Amino acid sequence: MRAKIVAGNWKMNNNKDESKTLINELKNSLKDFSFNNTRVLVAPTFVNLSSLVKRANKSKIEVVAQNMHQAKNGAFTGEISADMLKNIGIKSVILGHSERRSYFGETDAILSEKVNTTLKNNMEAIFCFGELLEDRSSENHFKVVESQLKNGLFHLEASAWKNIVLAYEPVWAIGTGETASPQQAQEMHAFIRAIIKEKYNETLANNVSILYGGSVKPSNAEEIFSKPDVDGGLIGGAALNAQDFIAIIKAI
Ligand code: PGA
């Protein structure tokens, strides 16, 4: 059975003290939460990863990275390698967030290399993708999503997919307050599962967790998560507030 996942992407927010307060609040509030098949992830900034890994120790909260460089090591000023992340206890990394794609020039080709590096290091990739508003307005959203998946992931062997989590995030819904309707999310998630089934097989398609991201909040989480092909969420703004994030986790 595929896992349900609620992941908080803190982006460039929370200094060391704020990170500590937030993780402690989350730990306390989740003490009696029955995780069962649910995973809870938080992605703080690089500088706070190490201390948060320690703080999350003995809780079920997983600390993950927001990004990673594709090279093994070398002259890449300002970048972080898979080995550095693994060495401090990080097992998963978010790749291809739309902010990485649009502000930092991450192309499908770069992302497919990042995916390869992640998997080679036995880490999990949380692969983000999604269409722009103009793609949806021109009814190209399915085409765009299909090509992002093909270019980023469809070179992989079937066996590699056990370490892949997908996060469909329509760019027009990220940080805008505008959310895809539960029907729009379900329609796209079902499409994604169908093209994975076509490329690989039904079992593999049914085992991949597909998260929705884009203005998920306590007031809309339950309805979005109730859709059969939506396996959780990648949460930005609402993950910065413990009460909101907990409410979203409890909606799963
Ligand atoms: P948002 O961000 O929840 O603030 O829209 C989602 C994301 O960027 O992953």
The main pleated sheet reads as: 8 strands, parallel
Q: Give the bound compounds.
A: 2-phosphoglycolic acid
Structural class: alpha/beta
CATH topology: TIM Barrel
Enumerate the strands of the largest sheet in spatial order, edge to edge or round the barrel: 3-2-1-8-7-6-5-4
Supply the CATH architecture. Alpha-Beta Barrel
- Specify the CATH homologous superfamily: Aldolase class I
Gyration radius from CA atoms, angstroms = 17 Å
Strand content: 15-25%
Element string (H = helix, E = strand): EHEHEHEHHEHHEHHEHEH
Number of domains: 1
Q: Which shape, going by the Cα principal axes?
A: globular
Q: What is the highest CATH level, the class?
A: Alpha Beta
What ranges have pLDDT less than 50 throughout 5 or more consecutive residues? none
Rounded average pLDDT = 97
Q: How many beta-strand elements?
A: 8
The number of helical segments is 11
| Straight-line N-to-C gap | 15 Å
Instruction: Classify the helix fraction into a percent range.
Output: 40-55%
Could you please describe the fold and organization of this structure?
Helix 1 runs parallel beside helix 2, helix 1 runs parallel beside helix 11 and helix 5 crosses helix 7 (141-153). This protein is 43% helix and 15% strand. It has helices at residues 16-29, 46-56, 82-87, 98-103, 108-120, 133-137, 141-153, 182-199, 202-207, 218-225, 242-250; strands at residues 4-9, 38-43, 61-63, 92-95, 124-129, 164-168, 210-213, 232-235. It is globular and about 45 Å long. The protein has a single domain (4-250), classed as Alpha-Beta Barrel (TIM Barrel), CATH 3.20.20. It is of the alpha/beta class. The protein has an eight-stranded parallel β-sheet. The protein is built from eleven helices and eight strands. The model has no long low-confidence stretch (mean pLDDT 97). Strand 2 (38-43), helix 2 and strand 3 (61-63) form a beta-alpha-beta unit. 2-phosphoglycolic acid binds next to strand 8.
